[in-house]
Amino acid sequence: LWPAERGETVLYEDDGLTFAYEQGQCRTTRVRYEQSGKRLVVKIEASRGAYPDAPQKRCLDLTFYGIREPKQVTVNSSPEGFRNGFEEDWGWVTVDDSPVDRLTTVELFY
Question: Is 58 helix (H, G, I), strand (E, B) or coil?
């Protein structure tokens, strides 16, 4: 993610093997982010749609560019249950086993 006041993107998934996506067998996940004041919020919404053998949990790897190290990072309001690291002007947050059927909120506080 690059710094901006706000933005969004959509993650698209399918089985990667067949043309079943042509019949609607796919899943999308909206990712929104907003920066205001001393807080950056990233919301990974619950996925919509399905395809055969789609995982029910995923590893979320978020990479942030052009930012400084935050004072605190939380995932779903908790300061635990994830990994993160920050360098001079970039950083990352990894959430293992994030359920696809619910909202995940990552917050960076400055």
Answer: strand
Question: Nearest CA to 87 among 106, 66, 72?
Answer: 66
d(CA 85, CA 12): 26
Nearest to 86 by CA among 102, 55, 110: 110
Which pLDDT band holds residue 54 (cuts at 50, 70, 90)? Answer: very high
What is the model's pTM?
A: 0.91
Backbone CA torsion sign across 30, 41, 61, 81? negative
Q: Phi, psi (5° rounding) for residue 72?
A: -150, 150
User: At CA 35, angle to CA 30 and CA 37, rounded to 5?
Assistant: 155
